[in-house]
Write a structure and sequence with these properties.
The structure is a single chain. By secondary structure, the chain is of the alpha/beta class. It is 35% helix and 23% strand. The strands form 3 sheets. The protein has a 5-stranded mixed beta barrel with strand order 8-11-9-10-12. The chain is globular, with a radius of gyration of 20 Å.
């Protein structure tokens, strides 16, 4: 648990074009992963790390997100009258996870721009940024480790994951040096979506960050980079290169992560999470084996 209150920011203004036409009217963050929308897993992760103030950065046609985290008295009353206590508990729990706020991004100008929209809400405090495409299994804590490292060093902290070098072009890649602490590295440089031969390592930055408020000043003067967007990676690179600052550290994550940003990986995430559930796994696992045997 963090020793000081920390807020979290969840960017959710993207168009979700990879999931069209499903995301034509539904935010991609609301696509179900088993029986909860993807964004609820992220909010639950923040709450479990002791964060109870969350800002969601949204775009147009994203009202379903705020509706999901609001209470629905008529639904709760019907479930109560039916004696459906289990579903009632789950519905109420989704409304009580945290104090959730919303702000519009306006036009999607990149992750750096989305983070910059949080400046007024966050103020002069460090804060977490959590991307909804990366779901972290609650049995493998990551955010609490990152918060602890930030409190120890006062530095920006990013989550890193070893990936196949052939896939590093899909991520920001980190150049690192060892710190002597298990699973903790110092980040000396970052490259956004490099070619395999240009990547400084196969350590990819995944969607969890602890940022210091200095990042806002940098983002305000950061020019659009790849794709014409304001890249958070560019701001992190400046923080890492600052000889007078606390720098950037990385927590190398070896736990279970579910990527919901790609259609195939989204389906894999549902299968993996459902198979691990006590209420679904016993029926699904034998069926998976039978299905696979007949392919």
């Amino acid at each position: 648990m963090p020793h000081t209150p920390m807020k979290a920011v969840i960017p959710a203004a993207g168009l979700g074009t990879r999931f069209l036409p499903a995301t034509k009217a539904m935010p991609k963050e609301m696509l179900p992963v088993v029986d909860k929308p993807a964004i609820q897993y992220v909010v639950e992760e923040a709450a479990q790390a002791g964060i109870d103030d969350i800002l969601v950065i949204i775009g147009r046609n994203k009202n379903a997100i705020s509706n999901h985290f609001d209470s629905v008295p008529e639904l709760e009353e019907k479930l109560k009258d039916k004696g459906d206590d289990d579903r009632l508990r789950r519905v109420v729990a989704s409304s009580d996870l945290a104090d959730i706020h919303f702000v519009r991004q306006g036009e999607p100008k990149g992750l750096g721009h989305a983070v910059l929209r949080a400046k007024a809400h966050v103020g002069d405090s460090s804060f977490a940024v959590m991307l909804g495409d990366d779901l972290i299994d609650d049995r493998d804590p990551l955010l609490t480790t990152m918060i602890a490292e930030h409190e120890r060093t006062g530095a920006t902290v990013v989550a890193l994951l070893e990936v196949d070098p052939d896939h590093i072009h899909l991520y920001g890649a980190a150049a690192v040096e060892e710190t002597g602490a298990d699973g903790i590295v110092r980040v000396t440089g970052l490259v956004e979506k490099p070619k395999k031969e240009d990547a400084p390592s196969n350590l990819a930055v995944i969607g969890r960050y602890i940022l210091t408020p200095e990042v806002f000043e940098i983002l305000e003067r950061t020019k659009p980079g790849k794709g014409g967007e304001i890249q958070l990676t560019d701001a992190l690179q400046e923080l890492a290169a600052d000889p007078d600052g606390p720098g950037v550290y990385g927590v190398v994550f070896n736990g279970r992560r579910y990527d919901t940003g790609d259609r195939v990986d989204y389906i894999k995430a549902i299968v993996q999470l459902a198979a691990d559930r006590d209420d679904l796994g016993p029926e699904l696992r034998p069926w998976f084996k039978e299905f696979a045997a007949n392919l």
